[in-house]
User: Fold this.
Amino acid sequence: MYKIVTKKELAPKIKLFEVHAPEIAKKAKPGQFIILIVSEKGERIPLTIAGYNAEKGTITFVFNEVGKTTKQLGLLNEGDSILSITGPLGTPSEIRNFGKVLCVAGGVMIAPMLLQIKALRNAGNTIITIIGARIKELLFFEEEMRALSHNFYVATDDGSKGYKGLGFLKEVLEKEKVDRCITMGPVVMMQNVCEITKSFGIPTIVTLMPIMVDGMGMCGVCRVNVGGETKFACVDGPEFDGHKVDFDQLIKRQRLFLPEERLSSLLWEQLGGCRDGRK
Ligand SMILES: Cc1cc2nc3c(=O)[nH]c(=O)nc-3n(C[C@H](O)[C@H](O)[C@H](O)COP(=O)(O)OP(=O)(O)OC[C@H]3O[C@@H](n4cnc5c(N)ncnc54)[C@H](O)[C@@H]3O)c2cc1C
Ligand code: FES
Assistant:
């Protein structure tokens, strides 16, 4: 059992958990993820590691309550335990001195991007950061990001804070000579970033989040097409060269079980949604 030592609500439906998991905390690196099971009858869900502290024996992750399991998870409190956590999984990010790195993060993925930025800064990089969300209320970690960035921008889909949309990215890239771009967030956002960076010839790394089951390269559920080759996001990734990813196929595969996911969340809520998943 993995005890929750800290719980924070960062934005509506976006929660941070710091959990006692000493074995994972010892080995975790930026870019890796865990798979957790909330309770005995629970589903396995992957979440990106957003922090780790080997001395305290804790790991941190931030999640968006989008469906049944993430809603169940959000009902747990400090002192409660999560049944199972497997990790660290996936290939760690490449961290070295690239020069000037543009980091573009959207939504809940702002959290793991902060971990990447800390590591990239420690490696001597100059950091330009863009964080974005649908509306200003869903932004978080702004001050932490600003403090670690040489240049910092905010964007929202509705323009309620900072730039409206990502159109201004072209202007940023015309001003700054960027050596590498890293982007994490909704697929459509990463796809848009890749289209723009491709026209500037900037190598771009994306974090892919297809549906996963075992997270260990055995079930094949997480397959993605990168440069015409089939890759398993859980072991070959989750980070890939964004200019080679078949985003249209990824979007189609992510939507494969949407009716079932909606039904499962609805039924669980109608039955009075409880945290151990029995209802
Ligand atoms: C490597 C990886 C890292 C991730 N990191 C984070 C993170 O740090 N924070 C976060 O909030 N979310 C993260 N996700 C997405 C998260 O796993 C899903 O939101 C979660 O599984 C949804 O479960 P649910 O039962 O609450 O919702 P569901 O009802 O199952 O689904 C709601 C939505 O989530 C997507 N989804 C469902 N199951 C999975 C799955 N097994 N893998 C990926 N997507 C799925 C569906 O396409 C659907 O759009 C990550 C996914 C992957 C693959
Ligand atoms: S999740 Fe099974 S192979 Fe990747």
